[in-house]
Amino acid sequence: MTTVDPKIIELAEKLGKRPRAVVNHIIKYGSVSTTQLKEIYGYDHPPRAARDVREVGIPLVTKIVKNAETGKKNAEYTLGSLEELRTDILQGRKNFPAKFKKKLFTQHKHKCAICNAEYSPRVLQVDHRIPYEVAGDKLDTFALDVNAYMPLCPSDNRNKSYSCEKCKNWLDIRDSEICKTCYWASPEGFEHVSMKKEKRTELVFRENEINVYTAIEEKAQFVGESVEEYIINLLKKSE
């Protein structure tokens, strides 16, 4: 078992099932990887489990390593410095007040901030625009400034977590200003996607628009292109 400050061990017992499993594994073995979180504990989205730990105030250090058996890269988590322990949020993730959620969802017209598709309040999830792991004490998590949060559908919340986990700003730099100009924090106006120079948009076809998507898909298949490639090439031709 790894030598760990008693405070961390004590706190681990007070956590929810998922963050407790992450911390206890690290305490016992020194670290835990995304592969282990998925294969041993059955977490389909391992970065979310690690994020649960950070959101209750326990610092984690992320390192990208290569799996000796598969050769694929995955994240490996170890406990951070006790000096970074957030004693102000050790009671765990707080539920957002109903009035705050209603205000946020209404402001975004009940749409996911990323894909712009409309969802019911039960489906939409509240997420920080700038991750706590980057902003740290610069962002008052519980001030509940509606502009500091964004509603996301479950799929895009997972996509954002996955992308942020691999971003150099998350791993090394931790500059809030870089996050502010990122697609995942400001999809309505951004300069980069996880520090990569690219532009992105999301299209969701629903109900009576499904026929439009089907027609595009058929035409794309006819010319041997993906739907994305077909739309881009169609726009280029119209310039």
CATH topology-level name of the largest domain: Arc Repressor Mutant, subunit A
N to C succession of SSEs: HHEHHEEHEHEHHHHH
What are the segments in which pLDDT stays under 50 over at least 5 consecutive residues?
88-93, 137-142
User: Could you say which overall geometry the principal axes of the C-alpha atoms support?
Assistant: globular
What is the annotated CATH architecture of the largest domain? Orthogonal Bundle
How would you characterize the largest beta sheet?
A: 3 strands, antiparallel
Structure class: mainly alpha
Count of runs of 4 or more consecutive helical residues: 11
- Separation of termini? 63 Å
What is the mean predicted local confidence, pLDDT? 84
Describe, in short, the structure shown.
This protein has 239 residues and is mainly alpha-helical. Helix content is 41%, strand content 10%.
Task: Give a description of the structure.
The protein has 239 residues and is mainly α. Helix content is 41%, strand content 10%. The strands form two sheets. A three-stranded antiparallel beta sheet has the order 1-3-2. Strand 2 and strand 3 form a beta hairpin. Helix 2 crosses helix 4 and helix 10 packs across helix 11. The longest helix is centred in the first third of the chain and has 13 residues.
